[in-house]
Every structure is written in C-alpha cells, then in structure tokens.
Amino acid sequence: DTEVTQTPKHLVMGMTNKKSLKCEQHMGHRAMYWYKQKAKKPPELMFVYSYEKLSINESVPSRFSPECPNSSLLNLHLHALQPEDSALYLCASSQGGKGNQPQHFGDGTRLSIL
Amino acid sequence: AQKITQTQPGMFVQEKEAVTLDCTYDTSDPSYGLFWYKQPSSGEMIFLIYQGSYDQQNATEGRYSLNFQKARKSANLVISASQLGDSAMYFCAMRPGLQGAQKLVFGQGTRLTINP
C-alpha cells in the first residue's frame, strides 16, 4: 500500500461531465504534484503545489483545475474533457523543496473519456 | 535545457543475474539530483534510489546501486540478483537545481523483463 492515496482508481466520464480526482497524504509533506501519463510514456508534470500555493502550472488547459484545500489534500477538477485526455493521472508528494527528498506517488486514477 | 536519455527500450534478463539500466542526462545546473523509479503494471511509481550531484560516493539501497559517472553525465542503475518481481518499467529522472519547487524530468523508460 502506498502512503499517497488516490480516488477513484478508475473513472469513465463523458465529455460534458464534471468530475474530480482526489489525492491524500499524511506524511507531513508540503509539496504535492499532479502528473499525466499516457500509455508507454513517462509521466508529464501538470501542476505543483508548494505550501498549499500553486507554484507550477505547465501550461495545462483550463478544463483541468487543481485545488489544494489543505496540506494533506489535493484535488483535480475535470470539466469538458476531450478523448485525448484519457490517461493515468498520478498524484505525488514530497517534503518541501529539499533536493534529495524523493516524490512519493499514489497508484493513480485511470481516466477514460468517452 | 534539461534532458534524460534511456537508450534501452526493453531488456530481458535471466533470474538471479545482475542487470544494468542505462541513463544519461544533460543539464547546465551545477546542482541536481538523479532518481530512479520502478513502475509495475499496476501503475504506481516506486522510488528506488537517489544520487545528488555533489555526492562523492555511489548510492546503494539493498539490491539497487547507482553507477554515477559525473564527467560522463551518466547514472546507471544496477540491480543485483534479479528477481521475477523486478519485471517492470524503470524510469530515470532528474531534478535540475536543489531548491524550490521540485520539477522532475523523466527519461522514456526501460521495460525490464526477468525470465525464470
């Protein structure tokens, strides 16, 4: 079991739906991340939150909206997604900005857009 | 620009043999960190080992060791006595700079298959 919990594990949604992905960690980490991973490709960074503030947005389309309600939770709100947004969405956390601290990943949410 | 190159798309190894997964990197930052992650088919990214640019010794974690050659900009992962459970995708990643928000640059990955 990972220390970063993502829900749901699988999600199928239509292009007009609104849904949210959730991520939770209780390791006291102050940095949290969203990645998108297509099949047979490496993860691509989407967003970074540092001390609950958005610090990096990798030019992600506005149909993806991140939210960090507190230091343990990270959400990704989805609206009007496209079929090409089907992917594995990974959440990760790490201890602040120290260089040698690895990111700890969750199991991911497998998202399918119909 | 920062870049990670993994030249082996796939590798097949007999159980109990040692295996080396190649990783070369390119960065202009004097300070950086190098990470290896394992991703089984279940999807979770599992942290294996870390090497800092200023570390004098090669990192080791159990059966995993990192062959760090700074002048050649390579950070190869060595797995000793491979096991069937080592079959997975392996990603090399670099963090340019050691302060501030942690932005990882990943290589394309190597799919390792351990044969019984």
Mind summarizing the main beta sheet of chain A?
A: 7 strands, mixed
Helix content of chain B: under 10%
Largest sheet of chain B: 6 strands, mixed
Number of strands of chain B: 12
N/C terminus separation of chain B: 41 Å
Q: Can you write the helix and strand succession of chain B as a string?
A: EEEEEEEEEEEE
* Elements of chain A, N to C (H/E): EEEEEEEEEEE
Give an overview in words.
- The complex is a heterodimer of chains A (114) and B (116).
- By secondary structure, chain A is mostly beta strands.
- In chain A, 0% of the residues lie in helices and 56% in strands.
- Chain A is built from no helices and 11 strands.
- The N and C termini of chain A lie far apart (30 Å).
- Chain B has strands spanning 3-5, 10-14, 19-21, 24-26, 32-39, 46-52, 60-61, 64-69, 74-79, 88-96, 105-106, 110-115.
- In chain B, strand 8 (64-69) and strand 9 (74-79) form a beta hairpin.
- The model of chain B has no long low-confidence stretch (mean pLDDT 94).
- Chain B is 0% helix and 52% strand.
- Chain B has 116 residues and is mainly beta.
- Chain B is globular and about 40 Å long.
- In chain B, strands 2, 5, 6, 10, 11 and 12 form a 6-stranded mixed β-sheet that branches. In chain B, strands 3-9-8-7 form a 4-stranded antiparallel β-sheet, with no helix packed on it. Chain B has a two-stranded antiparallel sheet with strand order 1-4.
- Chain B has no helices and 12 strands.
- The A-B interface holds A 2, 31, 33, 40-43, 45, 48, 50, 55-56, 88, 90, 92, 94, 97-108, 110 and B 31-33, 35, 37, 42-47, 50, 52, 91, 95, 97-104, 106-109.
